[in-house]
C-alpha cells in the first residue's frame, strides 16, 4: 500500500524538496509513498485571493483566515491524521511517528505568519496541533518535511536492514549509544576495546549502559520518564530502590 502524504501549504514548490533524494527519493520513485500538495490560496474567494487578515484585538502580523482554511481542509477528505504545524502544538514523538507510519498516510496543514484562526481547531477537532521542537520557524513546511521524513524511513523496504529503525534514539525511551567505525585509531583515539572483543553479550551490555548514561546526562527529561517507567511494577505500583 502506498503511504499517501498531502501537504496544505502556500508554498507547494517546497515539496518533495529534500525528500526527493536519497532513501526517501528512491522510495518515492518506487511508489512506496506519494506526495500531493494543495495550494491553500486556491480556496480564497475574493479577487485578490486573500488568505490572511489582521489579528482580532490588534497586534503584529497576520492570521490565516478560517473561511479559506476550512474548504482546504475539507478537500483532503478523511481517514488519515491531519497534523497542523504550530509552535502551540504538542511536541511530536517517535512513538507517534511510528503510529502514523503504520497507517495509510498523513496530511499536513502548514501555517505561516501568526498562525491559524483558532476556530479551525474548534470546528475540526480531529486535527492534531503538532510542534517539531521548542523553536519558531518561518513556516510549517520545514517542520512537515522533517516529520514526513521520520515517517517515510519507517515504511517497509525503505531502510536496508529490517532492524535499522529499532536501535535508534527515542525508540526505547533512550538516546542511542555512540557509534564508531574504521580506522581503529584516529588522532590518538581508539575504538573502545569492548566493541572489538567480538563478545556480543558484552557489546550489548556496554551499549545499553552508554545509552542510559548519555540519556541521564544529556536528556534528563527523557531519563526521568524512562527511569520512572522502569521503576513501575506490573500492577503499576512503584518499586522501592
TrEMBL record:
* UniProt-listed Pfam families: tRNA_m1G_MT
Gene Ontology molecular function: any one? tRNA (guanine(37)-N1)-methyltransferase activity
- Which domain of life does the protein's organism represent? Bacteria
Bias type Basic and acidic residues, positions? 209-232
- Region called Disordered, residue ranges: 208-241
- Domain tRNA methyltransferase TRMD/TRM10-type, by residue range, is 6-224
Q: Does the keyword NADP apply?
A: no
Reactions performed catalytically: guanosine(37) in tRNA + S-adenosyl-L-methionine = N(1)-methylguanosine(37) in tRNA + S-adenosyl-L-homocysteine + H(+)
Please state where this protein is localized: Cytoplasm
Q: Which residues bind S-adenosyl-L-methionine?
A: 111
Give GO cellular component annotations, separated by semicolons.
cytosol
User: Which CDD domains does the UniProt record give?
Assistant: TrmD-like
- EC numbers: 2.1.1.228
Q: What biological process terms from GO does the record include? A: tRNA N1-guanine methylation
Q: Which UniProt keywords apply?
A: Cytoplasm, Methyltransferase, S-adenosyl-L-methionine, Transferase, tRNA processing
**InterPro entries from the xrefs?**
Alpha/beta_knot_MTases, tRNA_m1G_MeTrfase_C_sf, tRNA_m1G_MeTrfase_TrmD, tRNA_m1G_MTases_N, tRNA_MeTrfase_TRMD/TRM10
**Major subcellular location class:** cytoplasm
**Record note on quaternary structure:** Homodimer.
Per its database record, what is this protein's job? Specifically methylates guanosine-37 in various tRNAs.
Which family does the record assign?
Belongs to the RNA methyltransferase TrmD family.
Please report the name of this protein according to its UniProt entry. tRNA (guanine-N(1)-)-methyltransferase
Q: What gene makes this protein? A: trmD
Amino acid at each position: 500500500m502506498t503511504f499517501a502524504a498531502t501537504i496544505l501549504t502556500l508554498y507547494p514548490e517546497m515539496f518533495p524538496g529534500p525528500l526527493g533524494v536519497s532513501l526517501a527519493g528512491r522510495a518515492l520513485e518506487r511508489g512506496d509513498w506519494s506526495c500531493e500538495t494543495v495550494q491553500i490560496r486556491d480556496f480564497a474567494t475574493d479577487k485578490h485571493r486573500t488568505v490572511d487578515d489582521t489579528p482580532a484585538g490588534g497586534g503584529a502580523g497576520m492570521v490565516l483566515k478560517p473561511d479559506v482554511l476550512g474548504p482546504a481542509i475539507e478537500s483532503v477528505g478523511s481517514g488519515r491524521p491531519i497534523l497542523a504545524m504550530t509552535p502551540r502544538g504538542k511536541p511530536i514523538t517517535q512513538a507517534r511517528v511510528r503510529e502514523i507510519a503504520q497507517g495509510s498516510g498523513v496530511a499536513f496543514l502548514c501555517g505561516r505568519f501568526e498562525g491559524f484562526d483558532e476556530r479551525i481547531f474548534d470546528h475540526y477537532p480531529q486535527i492534531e496541533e503538532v510542534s517539531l521542537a521548542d523553536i519558531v520557524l518561518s513556516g510549517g513546511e520545514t517542520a512537515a518535511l522533517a516529520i514526513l521524513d521520520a515517517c517515510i524511513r519507517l515504511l517497509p523496504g525503505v531502510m536496508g536492514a529490517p532492524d535499522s529503525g529499532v536501535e535508534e534514539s527515542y525508540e526505547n525511551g533512550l538516546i542511542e549509544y555512540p557509534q564508531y567505525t574504521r580506522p581503529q585509531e584516529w588522532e590518538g583515539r581508539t575504538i573502545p576495546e569492548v566493541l572489538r572483543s567480538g563478545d556480543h553479550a558484552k557489546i550489548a551490555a556496554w551499549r545499553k549502559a552508554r545509552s542510559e548514561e548519555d540519556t541521564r546526562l544529556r536528556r534528563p527529561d527523557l531519563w526521568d520518564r524512562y527511569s520512572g517507567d522502569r521503576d513501575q511494577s506490573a500492577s503499576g505500583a512503584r518499586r522501592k530502590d
